[in-house]
Specification:
alpha+beta; Jelly Rolls; 2 domains
């Protein structure tokens, strides 16, 4: 890696970096590549080669699982400054399920070789602790996603989704189609359309082609905070 900006980003994102030897630092930097992905492109599949650690510089990624009948269930999203450890699941013995990763939008990431991550985990306890902690944190996100799907009403799930997207994008105008929302939420488009229509009738949102605008965030927050 010759780009100084990328190197600084890598060092700031990996808390174990100061605990690496000079040789380990060189090994890590030499086996990290800057990669660009187009919107909706496939980054990782069950039958793909193990990618390694992904650090998002710009854009966002979606990590999801897929049922036998092709239904997608979003586990979590990855935003700038965050990392994807499940893309290196081949070096984590505790991860035994297949995940899929797509680019939600045009994205730039730093990709650290899985073989190097495996070697560093074996030789450096700080790297091993970092990887295990990152995996545990993401497992918490996975459990939250499962809890939402299994135990939470859809109107509450949709309210939470819209508020989270608004906070992430920094705007109340969300450039999302019903199909995209359904895909991100792991639901059917018809269900999303029906609930958005209800939200519109209640004055929570305004619907237009390829866009959902939040009008009453107070009402959405009240719905999102409602306990089942």
């Amino acid at each position: 890696m010759s780009n100084q900006t990328d190197q600084a980003f890598l060092e700031s994102a990996l808390s174990f970096f100061p605990h690496l030897s000079s040789a380990e630092k060189n090994l890590l930097l030499q086996n990290t590549a800057a990669v660009s992905y187009k919107k909706e492109s496939s980054i990782h599949r069950a039958d793909y080669k193990c990618l390694g650690l992904l650090l998002v510089k710009s854009g966002s990624l979606r990590v999801y699982i897929m049922s036998e009948d092709g239904r997608e269930i979003t586990l979590y999203r990855i935003y700038p400054g965050e990392l994807c450890i499940l893309s290196a699941s081949c070096v984590l013995s505790s991860i035994t399920f297949d995940v899929y990763i797509d680019a939600v939008e045009d994205s730039q990431v730093l990709q650290v070789s899985s073989s190097v991550i495996s070697l560093l985990m074996h030789d450096n306890i700080y790297v091993e602790a970092f990887a295990n902690r990152a995996a545990a944190e993401r497992f918490s996100d996975v459990m939250w996603a499962m809890q939402q799907i299994l135990f939470m009403s859809f109107d509450r799930r949709l309210a939470i989704f819209l508020l989270d997207e608004s906070a992430s994008l920094g705007t109340d105008r969300l450039p999302l189609t019903h199909e995209q929302i359904a895909k991100l939420m792991g639901s059917a488009r018809e269900v999303v359309t029906r609930m958005l229509k209800y939200f519109s009738q209640e004055g929570y949102v305004a619907l237009s082609r390829g866009c959902v605008t939040l009008l009453d965030k107070k009402a959405l927050r009240k719905l999102a905070d409602t306990q089942p």
